[in-house]
Design goal:
It is a single chain. By secondary structure, this protein is α+β, with helices and mostly antiparallel strands. About 65% of the residues lie in helices and about 10% in strands. It has 38 helices and 23 strands.
Length: about 1400
């Protein structure tokens, strides 16, 4: 299809415009080859004759269907006006800031916050393909993350654009997406640290410019590292070309770096007062641009945020304060005044306040800094010369020093951030985010713009190669024949800059010359490149500039300052002075051998360069250009080794207005960022690509019936294209897509619109004809109806007469009276019928109510007598049952008493025989004991001598302590005098702190008084303890005599206890049987409930059957006939319906009463069973709790006894021999230190032994009670009779017995209290005895330490004993509560005659106590 054929009427084209760049117009007349003028109709309605160039026709406008596409490469016509118009529609009208351009994401800065970056949006894009959803920065990030996870290949996201286009924000959102999607499960919070690095780098590397309030003045490449699970493990940052000149110079309406203003805004805070800062207007380096405040930005809040991010990255306050100290020193350095001394000299006063603060903050010598700011040292082969500098040279030296310090600080902060983001594991893959400056061209372009545009040339070359490669891969994938595409290659420009003898090399060469100047370097450029390289030009009107033809535009650079900025040098003597700084951070910045960068990411990582200061060898100094070229080379290697993704940020206008579209500025940026180059490459090949299904569904209108009959849609598309487009070079068929050259989709759209237009004309023709026919038929029908009514009216007028009207009126009157008569008769009949029915029904209801009242009264009387009879019968059965239980219980108890007496008699006989045998053995033992007593007497004499020696030693130590106390008192008096003198001096010097010091003195005096009191108390305690030691020696002699008697008693009791404990363990196994019996009772309860429910169901079914039988016995038709008017009088007389109703009512009443009685019986039985089950479970739980508490008390007593015996094992030899006698069975199990605790424990054991004989009887009684319960439950289900009067009498008797029982309980409580007091006195005696034993045999420790240890130990023992007493009190209280619960259970049990009421309350309580002990055992 020829291009000229598309220029037909109604098609639209783009023509150039001075304001809008491109303007749309519609073709008013078809174009023919050879025409010199094209007739156009503009959008405002004016006609225009546009002069044509036959070789370049105006670009065609895309069809409306393609306007607003997500991807610019999907447009049929790919050219500059189409791209600009599509961006305008999406941005200005649809408020969409993101658009794809092939692999590029074009991002327009809205200058307005948008709600499209929340976590919900992140999760919506997570896992989606790039084309499935609207264009977004998250879609690009997701595509990079998905390719990294799928292919295990490193990725890069390259964000570029000019200042103010939104690069920093886009890079920040991309990093936030990775941090959210790949959040790790560990607690290291690496993602938060990665995001926290952004505010710090923005504070120290961003500043306000005329184009952007937060412009990044450096390039940044951030590598986010991932592990094998694709989770973030760390990050690394590289920076490029920091704009150091901004530290000392800012243009109008611009600011220095944000961190300076944040620091000045926080200067009044206490933590920053030592920096001696003020407002930003007070410093030269911050007020130079005349704009110290950004509208809507709070610098103090920014400082708080910066400190928070420092802390989050693990930077301590000392590190932060060091950074702030260097920043404050830079500000003070800028205010150092340099005065001119003549024309060739200058000077700096050493008394300058800012110089003093600068040297104080950095730890420098003020005289040296003042000297070398105005002088420099020149070293030659023969001598060293100090040359003074003029005032401008000194100011330049001062500014160079400030720039150098800030550059070192910036690199140091970046290095520390990398260390904070460093990880210990192995990096699997990474995603790099490159936030770098875009192509820049200003009115005055210097060295910074030259380096920036050089970097963009390298990035554009990499971008072109990548796009070309992707196009080739797409064609190879679809098996499309590949033809070479001609695209712009900027390698010549790159060679001009970086090749041998290029611009950078000539610049470095000129920097090495001592007398090198910008003019000499520029002259070399003119000589080497003017008229020799087409990309280099010399301006016509200037001899201090040169022009380079970049890929985006021509840029004119001013050579002034190139050499100085490339050298980036500070005079050697200033460097040496700073190297000798006392401030470690400043000294590290300028040391000769800087520490190499960390190995983290060493393969490709290059940090911002730090110049190696070598004053004696200038040839080896590295220039800024060479460092930048090296870092850029490594960046290109990194990007080439990764899969790149491109984000081009566009600034829509210079006024920062939201959603304002400035076509000129946008076209300039599109040309500079490579978007149009991508479109041009796509346009040279096959830019439009449709799948076969999309083509079939879109252009099915152009297909014929024969073509549509084919089954394969792919073949249909091929046939249609061969027919529609004869030139086969205009399209290609791939495996899944059809590729079209530029303009072919628009041609197909034109054919489709023509086809639709023809079809619309045909449809309009038929619809309009149908509407006209319908209108004609409607009008014809209306005319016929009008004629019909008109002719009928004429015939009526002819037929109507006076006689006909009279006859009609008479007929109406007759009808009225006849109908009224009939209606009145019918009304009277109905009224009489309703009155009679009401009378009979009301009488029927009144009689029914009367009979019901009589029946209910009689039923109540019958129920009263029946229930009384049942209650009497039940009481008699219960009474007989209780008597039987009492008889059996008393018989069994008498039998057991007889058996016990027989056993006791048998035991006494055996004891008599054993005593006879023991007597012989005891005589032998007595002889042995006498010999042992002689030995003990000798040992006692030795111990007495040792005691005297210890007493003398203790008296000497007490004397020493008294001397030490006197010395301490003298020292205290001296300290008090010194304190008084110091307080008087402090009062004179510091008036503001007098109140605080007075309070402190009072506190010290109070503490001194407390110490003196505590010391006096301790001395009194020591004297008491010495006196108690004398009494303990006498008490030990008396205690020896009691030990022998107690040991013999313990042997007898221990043997009996062992046997009884074994029996208790056997009997404890029966508890599980009780639990099983409770479970059986619960199952019986459930069965009873099920039985009741089944009976309810059967009763309901019987009721339904009875009602059905009654209803079937009556004939409905007979009833209806009897309810006629004639038989209403016989209804009351016959009474058949009444008798039937009464019979049914009686039957239901009898069934209901029977059912209610059964229900009540079952509910009572269930309640009784529930009560018994709950009561038994509560009793068992309560007994188990008591048993646990008793065991805890026994265990604590055992531990206490063992501890005391271990301490008293060395008391006497006699006690040793008795404690370790062979054949003593209980000595190792229960050794006792003194007689009093032994007696207490033996008392417990005796109480337990008294309870053991009754355990067997209680167990048998419980078994019998279990059998009685089972029989009782069976009897209750069958019979429920008793007498209420006998139960009431029995209750009165029980109340009287309870009164007597309460008195006995109170008496027992008094006995328990007395026993408790005895126990307390015994415990106190035991404490004193144990203290004496311990204090006597501690020979190796000092006296003072022994006193303290004994005091602490005694306090601990007192606490333990108090806890034991509290435990005993709790046990007594629990026993009292148990007695109360038992009284309640007895009252309930008497109602059901379950337990036997014993004659003596004491015996009954003893039984229950024995049961409790048995259950707990």
């Amino acid at each position: 299809m020829a291009g000229a054929a598309l220029y037909t009427q109604y098609n639209r084209v783009w023509i150039p415009d001075a304001e809008e760049v491109w303007k749309s117009a519609e073709i008013a007349k078809d174009y023919r080859v050879g025409d010199k003028v094209l007739r156009l109709l503009l959008e405002d309605g004016t006609e225009l004759d546009y002069s044509l160039d036959p070789e370049s026709l105006p670009p065609l406008r895309n069809p409306d269907i393609l306007v607003g596409e997500n991807d610019l490469t999907a447009l049929s016509y790919l050219h500059e006006p189409a791209v600009l118009h599509n961006l305008r529609i999406r941005f200005a009208e649809s408020k969409l800031i993101y658009t794809y351009s092939g692999i590029i994401l074009v991002a327009m800065n809205p200058y307005k916050p948008l709600p499209i970056y929340g976590d919900a949006i992140i999760h919506a894009y997570s896992g989606q393909n790039m084309g499935d959803m609207d264009p977004h920065i998250f879609a690009v990030a997701e595509e990079a993350y998905k390719q990294m996870a799928r292919n295990n290949k490193n990725q890069s996201i390259i964000v570029s654009g000019e200042s103010g286009a939104g690069k920093t924000v886009s890079a920040r959102y991309a990093m936030r997406y990775f941090a959210t999607v790949s959040k790790s499960s560990s607690n290291t919070h690496v993602e938060d640290k990665v995001l926290a690095s952004n505010p710090i780098t923005e504070a120290v590397g961003n500043a306000k410019t005329t184009r952007n309030d937060n412009s990044s003045r450096f390039g940044k490449y951030t590598e986010i590292s991932f592990d094998e699970r694709n989770q973030i493990i760390g990050a690394n940052m590289r920076t490029y070309l920091l704009e150091k000149s901004r530290v000392v110079f800012q243009s109008e309406n611009e600011r220095n770096y944000h961190i300076f203003y944040q620091l000045c805004a926080s200067a009044q805070q206490s933590e920053f007062k030592h920096l001696k800062l003020g407002s930003a207007e007070e410093f030269n380096y911050t007020r130079m641009g005349g704009s110290t405040v950004i509208e809507g930005v709070n610098d103090r809040a920014g400082m708080v945020e910066t400190q928070k991010t420092f802390t989050l990255l693990g930077f301590k306050e000392d590190f932060q304060m060091d950074v702030f100290k260097i920043l404050a020193a830079i500000l003070h350095l800028g205010n150092v005044q340099v005065t001119a001394v003549g024309n060739e000299r200058s000077s700096v006063s050493e008394d300058d306040r800012h110089l003093e603060v600068f040297c104080e903050l950095l730890g420098l010598e003020r005289s040296k800094i003042a000297q070398w700011l105005c002088n420099r040292k020149i070293i030659t082969t023969s001598e060293t010369v100090v040359k003074p500098m003029t005032r401008p040279q000194a100011i330049n030296a001062r500014d160079a020093l400030a720039k150098k310090i800030y550059a070192h600080l910036f690199d140091f902060i970046v290095e520390r951030i990398n260390q904070a983001l460093q990880f210990s594991g192995k990096q699997h893959t990474f995603i790099g985010v490159l936030d770098i400056y875009g192509f820049e061209t200003f009115d005055v372009n210097s060295f910074e713009q030259f380096c920036i545009n050089y970097a963009n040339e390298k990035l554009q070359q990499q971008f072109n190669l990548h796009v070309f490669k992707l196009e080739q891969e797409e064609y190879m994938k679809e098996d499309i024949p590949w033809t070479l595409i001609d695209f712009y290659d900027n390698q010549p420009v790159i060679d001009l800059i970086e090749a041998k003898m290029g611009i950078l090399e000539l610049l470095d060469e000129e920097c090495l010359l001592p007398q090198g100047t910008d003019e000499n370097w520029l002259q070399k450029l003119y000589n080497n490149f003017v008229n020799k390289n087409s990309l280099f030009e010399k301006p016509r009107m200037s001899n201090t500039s040169f022009i380079i033809q970049h890929f985006a535009d021509k840029v004119e650079y001013k050579c002034e300052g190139f050499l100085e900025k490339n050298r980036d040098t500070v005079y050697d003597m200033l460097v040496e002075t700073l190297r000798a700084s006392k401030f470690h951070l400043c000294a590290n910045f300028f040391r000769e051998n800087p520490v190499p960068p960390s190995p983290f990411g060493s393969a490709i990582t290059v940090k911002s360069a730090k110049p190696l200061v070598k004053p004696n060898n200038k040839q080896f100094r590295t220039t800024v250009g060479s460092k930048f070229r090296g870092s850029l080379y490594l960046l290109m290697e990194t990007l080439n080794a990764t899969t790149p993704h491109y984000v081009r940020c566009i600034k829509p206008n210079d006024e920062k207005l939201p959603f304002e579209f400035d076509s000129k500025r946008i076209v300039q940026q599109l040309r500079a960022c490579g978007v149009l180059e991508t479109i041009r490459i796509s346009a040279q090949s096959y830019p439009s690509r449709w799948t076969y299904i999309e083509f079939y569904s879109r252009y099915g209108v152009l297909m014929t019936k024969q073509e549509l009959s084919f089954g394969d849609k792919k073949e249909v598309c091929k046939v249609v294209l061969h027919r529609l487009i004869q030139d086969s070079n205009q399209y290609q068929f791939g495996k899944t897509k059809i590729f079209f050259r530029a303009g072919q989709v628009a041609y197909l759209e034109k054919l489709r619109l023509d086809k639709l237009r023809q079809s619309c004309v045909v449809i309009q023709k038929h619809i309009r004809g149908w509407l006209q026919r319908k209108k004609f038929l409607r009008e014809r029908q209306a005319a016929l109806t009008i004629q019909q009514y008109f002719r009928g009216q004429q015939t009526v007028r002819k037929a109507v007469t006076a006689t006909a009207l009279k006859e009609a009126w008479a007929a109406i009157i007759i009808q009225k009276y006849c109908r009224g008569y009939l209606v009145r008769n019918l009304y009277q009949l109905i009224r009489v019928a309703t009155i009679t029915i009401q009378a009979y029904t009301r009488g029927l209801l009144a009689r029914r109510r009367y009979r019901k009242m009589l029946e209910e009264h009689k039923a109540v009387i019958l129920q009263k007598y029946a229930r009384a009879w049942l209650a009497r019968r039940r009481f008699q059965s219960i009474r007989r049952f209780v008597l039987n239980i009492q008889l059996t219980y008393r018989v069994q108890r008498l039998q057991k008493k007889l058996e016990d007496q027989n056993k006791e008699n048998h035991g006494l006989v055996e004891k008599l025989t054993s005593l006879a045998a023991l007597r012989a053995s005891d005589t032998e033992k007595i002889q042995k004991l006498e010999s042992e007593l002689d030995r003990a007497a000798t040992h006692r004499h030795n111990y007495e001598e040792k005691g005297k020696k210890y007493k003398a030693a203790m008296e000497e130590k007490l004397a020493k302590l008294q001397k030490h106390n006197s010395e301490l008192e003298i020292q205290k008096e001296q300290i008090e005098l010194q304190l008084r003198e110091k307080t008087e001096e402090l009062k004179g010097k510091m008036d503001d702190l007098t109140k605080q010091l007075f309070d402190d003195v009072q506190k010290e005096e109070q503490q001194r008084i407390l110490l003196e009191k505590s010391f006096e108390l301790k001395t009194q305690d020591y004297e008491k303890q010495i006196w108690s030691l004398k009494e303990d020696i006498q008490a030990l002699k008396e205690e020896k005599m009691h030990l022998h008697h107690q040991l013999e008693e313990e042997r007898v009791t221990s043997d009996g206890l062992k046997g009884e404990v074994a029996q208790l363990r056997k009997q404890a196994k029966t508890i599980s049987e009780f639990e099983k019996e409770i479970e059986l009772l619960q199952t019986q309860k459930i069965d009873v409930e099920k039985h009741v429910q089944s009976q309810k169901r059967e009763m309901r079914e019987k009721m339904s059957e009875i009602t059905k039988q009654l209803l079937e016995s009556y004939d409905i038709e007979d009833v209806r006939s009897r309810l006629s008017l004639e038989d209403l009088e016989h209804l009351n007389e016959d009474g058949e319906l009444w008798f039937a109703y009464e019979g049914l009512k009686k039957a239901t009443h009898v069934l209901e009463s029977h059912f209610q009685s059964q229900k009540d019986c079952y509910e009572k039985e269930i309640e009784a069973l529930n009560f018994k089950v709950v009561h038994l479970s509560q009793e068992i739980n309560h007994l188990q709790k008591l048993f646990r508490e008793e065991t805890d008390i026994n265990e604590s007593i055992r531990h206490e006894v063992t501890r005391l015996t271990s301490e008293n094992m060395d008391t006497t030899l006699s006690y040793r021999s008795s404690a370790h006698l062979p054949g003593y069975p209980f000595s190792a199990f229960l050794p006792l230190p003194s007689p009093l605790p032994r007696l207490r424990i033996l008392g417990h054991l005796w109480a337990v032994s008294q309870m053991i004989p009754d355990f067997k009887q209680q167990i048998s009684e419980l078994e019998k009670q279990k059998q009685d319960l089972e029989t009782r439950l069976n009897e209750q289900t069958e019979s429920m009779k008793g007498k209420l009067e006998e139960l009431s009498n029995q209750l009165n008797r029980n109340r009287e017995e309870e009164g007597t029982q309460r008195k006995t309980i109170e008496a027992q409580n008094e006995i328990h209290i007395k026993e408790k007091e005895k126990l307390i006195s015994k415990i106190q005696e035991m404490q004193e005895a144990s203290e004496h034993l311990k204090k006597q045999f501690e020979t190796e420790s000092e006296v003072k330490s022994t006193f303290r240890q004994e005091a602490s130990r005694l306090t601990v023992e007192n606490r333990d004993l108090e806890e034991e007493l509290d435990m005993k009190d709790r046990v007594i209280k629990k026993l009292q509560d148990q007695v109360k619960t038992l009284t309640k259970t007895i009252e309930k049990a008497q109602q059901y005659n379950i337990f036997k009421i014993s004659d003596s309350w004491d015996a009954w309580v003893a039984q229950w106590m024995s049961i409790c002990v048995w259950l707990r055992a």
